[in-house]
Amino acid sequence: MQHGVLFGVLALVGGWALVAYIVLPTSPYAEARSIGTNVRDFAELSERFRSLADERGAVYAFEVLRRAALPPDTDLHLLGHVVGDELYLQQGPGGIAVCTQDFRNACSHTIVIGTLNEFGASDATVEMIRDACTEAPGGSGAYTMCFHGLGHGVFAYFEYDIPHAVDFCRQLGTAEYGTQEYTQCVGGMIMELMGGGGHDPEEWERANARYLDPHDPLAPCDGPLIPDDAKNFCYIYLTPHLFDVAGADRARPDPLVFPKAFSLCDDIGDVSLRRVCWGSFGKEFVPLAGLRDIRQVDQFSDDEFGLAISWCMLAPQEKAKEACIEQALSSVFWGGENDPNASFRFCALVDEGPMRDSCYRELARNIASYIQGEQRKGLCARVPESMQEQCVTAYVAPGDRP
After folding, report:
1. What is the pLDDT of residue 27?
2. What is the pLDDT of residue 145?
3. How far apart are CA 299 and CA 366, in angstroms?
4. What average pLDDT is seen over the chain?
5. Taking the CA of residue 227 as centre, how many other CA atoms within 13 Å lie in the half-sphere pointing to its CB?
6. pLDDT tens digits for range 158-212
7. Residues 88/94/96/99 CA torsion (nearest 10 deg)
8. Is the pTM of this model over 0.90?
């Protein structure tokens, strides 16, 4: 049955809109208007989407999630995982064929996690996961990002034990993709450590106490638990912990603490890893500026992009500012899945000079990594002339960039 809506907001109480609707049998996805109203917390919102997926199918629930009016700061990626879990129950590994890149790959993430949980960590399961990731819709980055999602589930599957999870992730790497299946898996594991816990909250809390040290903010990335060839992906996803150590509220971090958080990266001896750590703040700033509504990052306003840029400029060192801008741009470009016009708009908002050059240089690298054919030529013609040749002729194998 399709639904429609006759009228909307009646009152605003405590920051939550109280809404009344008369439902008519005309408009599709009418639940998008009401599913987020009067919701008390994320758990209740998750349950509403589970019920919708059970009643009308997970594919329908994803379409509602794409359109839904939701409270500010809702974690859209985790909510995408909730619906993705239902999709796996309904369609199994083959469900990945209907996954899109919305919610930053949350759908494909849950499909491969479900496959691991159902079939175990065998060689046969690895091949099933590899086949599923090959079918993940999207551009050249969709395949390796699929393994990032798997890393979340791998960590939970091995009871939040880093050495066992890393060992399994290592099995996934292939020469064709520069072993990026492995390093993306480790990155997903670290992201799960930073902000997961949905699989087993108690075990996750124990892992936090075991692996995160306020006296060593860079742990576990700076120690032997994370192999050298995966440390860059560890530092990319360590950022929420750096916010914590600096005294920030993760939900709404105060920009006044950003310089302190940036400075925690300064103790990394390896120059390239230090730059990765600095840059990681950029990937956090873009969603934060848009109140975490990642459904339409390429439609963020100039003010929202400008806010993310201004936060990068709070880094105490020029190199840190450049790295932050570069990763913020990559977050906007998102492996070529977003409208590239947004990335050009983002770079144009950066002050002229070295920072803007860094932004366009990173954009050229992203185009070279993820875009092919005539579209690539057209986009490369729009970057500064000094970067066009590399943009057109260089090629970075899928997955070679974090």
Report:
1. 63
2. 84
3. 19
4. 87
5. 14
6. 999 999 999 999 999 999 999 999 999 999 999 999 987 666 788 889 999 999 9
7. -90
8. no
For residues 186 and 396, what is the distance between their CA atoms, to the nearest angstrom? 21
- Radius of gyration, alpha carbons of the chain: 21
Going by C-alpha positions, the residue among 337, 336, 338, 329 that lies closest to residue 298 is 338
- Secondary structure string (H, E, C) spanning 83-109: HHHHHHHHHHHHHHHHCCCHHHHHHHH
The DSSP line for 240-275 is HHHHHHHT--SSS--GGGHHHHHHGGGG-SSHHHHH
In 299-352, DSSP assigns E strands to none
Cα separation, 309 vs 314, in Å, equals 9
Share of the chain above pLDDT 70, in %: 89
315 vs 282: CA distance, rounded Å: 11
Q: Which H or E element spans position 285? A: helix 271-289
Name the one residue in this structure whose structure tokens are 């032997």: 224
Q: Which residue in 49, 65, 134 sits closest to 93, CA to CA?
A: 134
Take residue 326 and report the two structure tokens written for it: 């570069």
CB 99 within 8 A of CB 108: yes
How buried is residue 1: exposed, middle or buried, by Cβ count under 10 Å (0-12/13-18/19+)?
Answer: exposed
What is the token pair recorded at 185?
Answer: 């898996």
According to the model, what pLDDT value does residue 89 have?
92
Question: Is the pLDDT higher at 400 or at 138?
Answer: 138
Domain ranges of the chain: 238-402
Distance CA 309, CA 323 (A): 11
Burial label, 44 (beta-carbon count in 10 A; 0-12, 13-18, 19+): exposed
Burial of 123 per CB tally in 10 Å (0-12, 13-18, 19+): exposed
Distances (CA, A) of 32 to 36, 111, 379: 8, 24, 35
- Report the DSSP beta bridge partners of residue 5: 23
Q: CA–CA distance from 90 to each of 94, 125, 313, 344 (Å)?
A: 10, 19, 46, 40
Provide the token pair at 376: 């690539």
Using alpha carbons, select from 172, 135, 131 the residue that is nearest to residue 151: 172
3-state secondary structure of 172: coil
Cis amide leading into 220 (omega within 30): yes
Strand 16-19 vs strand 23-24: parallel, antiparallel, or unpaired?
unpaired
Amino acid at 294: I
